[in-house]
Design a protein that fits this description.
- There is one protein chain.
- This protein is α/β, with parallel strands linked by helices and about 280 residues long.
- It folds into 2 domains: about 120 residues, HUPs (Rossmann fold, 3-Layer(aba) Sandwich), CATH 3.40.50.620; about 120 residues, Elongation Factor Tu (Ef-tu), domain 3, CATH 2.40.30.30.
- It contains 8 helices and 13 strands.
- A 6-stranded antiparallel barrel has the order 8-9-12-11-10-13. A 5-stranded parallel beta sheet has the order 3-2-1-4-5. Strands 6-7 form a two-stranded antiparallel sheet.
- α5 packs antiparallel against α6.
């Protein structure tokens, strides 16, 4: 995962911040960041619900340093107390950039009018952004992912949706009976709905065309799996962490009457993935 070279920027040098949750670091978030200017920083309020870009995975999508604040630790603060904390932490702050629906302070009692009233610097508010009449929000992107509509989720994200996982031992059937796969344990990230996807699998920062299955192995042992097959290459993965970028959905998960039927379908899926990834 790429890290910003400015990650260790001293807070005293920050003159502008973007305030919000920023799960997904999506298209609308990037519009906020574009207003920060040279000495910018991002203040991410951690609610515990981030699952598009959980934890420090957000840093990959920003040239600005990101400072994380746990909601649990600040939710008791009034609006005035919260802004006093921000001004104390960033003593040279001149500008705050927020989305149109930003609220702050205990029970979210303060919103844009109070922010403008309480902060003595510049406040920039980014209006709601839509793509094809769909509002660009993290909650909306989650719904598209849950429905398996990867292409439109990617459009709202302005990038390919990506998850990280650790390699684990699979059931051993892939290389013997079907095709070799890398099996992953994925924590923290939202998984798209069950099915087969055309993907890019990234190992040691190198991207490979691939096909990925996620869901319950209803034809074999019934257990839940995330497994990816690299197309047209034999990759010995000696790296623990693997990244998967989702490009498009090929089909839903389904049960087959025999291993032969499943094997035949896997080869059809691979050909479909090749076409999509051309």
């Amino acid at each position: 995962m790429k890290k910003s070279s400015s990650i260790l920027t001293n807070k005293k040098s920050i003159t502008a911040i973007a305030l919000g949750g920023f799960d997904g670091m999506h298209y609308a978030h990037q519009k906020l960041f574009n207003k920060l200017g040279k000495n910018g920083g991002i203040v991410s309020i951690e609610s515990g619900f981030a699952n598009l870009t959980p934890k420090s995975y957000r840093q990959e999508y920003s040239v600005y340093p990101i400072y994380y604040y746990e909601l649990e630790n600040i939710k008791h603060l009034t609006g005035v107390e919260f802004l006093n904390l921000i001004k104390e932490e960033f003593p040279n702050l001149e500008k705050i950039v927020v989305g149109f629906d930003f609220c702050f302070g205990k029970n979210r009692q303060n919103c844009i009018p109070q922010l403008k009233e309480l902060f003595d610097g510049e406040v920039i508010v980014i209006d709601e952004i839509k793509i094809e009449d769909v509002p660009v929000h993290s909650r909306v992107i989650r719904e598209y992912l849950k429905d398996g509509n990867i292409k439109f989720a990617n459009k709202l994200l302005a990038k390919n949706y990506k998850i990280f996982g650790d390699q684990i031992k699979g059931q051993g059937l892939g290389s013997k009976s079907f095709v070799p796969t890398i099996n992953l344990k994925v924590d923290d990230f939202l998984l798209p709905n069950e099915g087969v996807y055309a993907t890019h699998t990234i190992i040691a920062e190198e991207s490979h065309n691939s096909i990925t299955f996620l869901g319950h192995r209803v034809t074999t042992d019934g257990s839940f799996a995330v497994e990816t097959h690299i197309l047209d290459k034999t990759i010995k993965n000696n790296y623990r962490t693997v990244q998967i970028e989702f490009i498009d959905k090929i089909r839903d998960n389904k049960k087959f009457d025999s291993f032969e039927e499943l094997k035949e379908q896997i080869h059809k899926d691979i050909n479909n993935a090749r076409e999509i990834l051309k």
